[in-house]
Amino acid sequence: MIEGILNIVYGLIASGIFLGIGFLYGRYKERKKNHGIPLESYPFYPFTIDDTKMLQFDFDKFNEAVLHLLKNKNHQAGQQLVLIGEQNNVRALLKSTALQNYEKLYKIYNGDKVLDDSTQFLENYKRIVRLIGDSFPDCGIEILLHNLSNPSKALYHIKNNITGRDVEAPATNLVMDLKRRNSNQEDKLNYELNIGARKFKCTTIPIYKENMGIVGAICINVDYNYLNEEVRNHPELKNKFLDSLCKTDMKLGENILSKSEYELAQNGKRHFRDF
């Protein structure tokens, strides 16, 4: 009798385990289904390439994506679409019905949290910009961070200001340009800008967030005319520039050289071109 009871207990335990495993697997499948696939996997990804091979935001595809994701929940694609919508200022451009649909989508996929998460994600990059900027004070080298969750108020942090912009200055074309360059596998490195009498050497580095795409960018802008015309031709400014560039705030005892370079340094090698 005891053996029979034990068999029943074991059977119930086994059944409970299998039911639990089945339940958890079902939850896992449901979560995976709801989390979904990236927005770019759909035919209505809201960007097209025009005849000049420039990336363009496509309102028709955007509206199609909104309607689809209202009916077919996809966490990943929905959040991506919210970010893209905010980046392209759709609230000001959509007509009444389309705007109402987008606002429903924004609420369903918790748009406020999407934007807040993107901002929080960029906080560490803000620290990076600050520390790099503080490494090159008064050198005519500006470094800044764009939060591209809201391109109309994109400038999030700036050090060594040489362009006269303030925090929350817009960067409305930057998102599209970076998306186009990414699709063409191009870097935005060492490019020249001429604005009136001003000239800059610039680099823009996009910041990607997993499952979301481009959420920010770090930009480095060098005041070309200041360095080329003023610093190069005035010994006192040249000395000031080099003093700023070489300025240190503390002295540490770390070794950053390879083993061979360390040995050469111990034997008198003074810099990387000292052969």
Automatic annotation (TrEMBL):
Pfam families the UniProt entry points to: PAS_6 (PF08348)
The record, for InterPro entries, names: DauR-like, YheO
Ranges annotated as spanning the membrane: 6-25
PANTHER family, alphabetically?
A: TRANSCRIPTIONAL REGULATOR DAUR
Superkingdom classification of source: Bacteria
Q: What protein name applies here? A: PAS domain-containing protein
Is Transmembrane helix found in the keyword set? yes
For the YheO-like domain, which residue ranges apply? 122-228
Key words, A-Z: Membrane, Transmembrane, Transmembrane helix
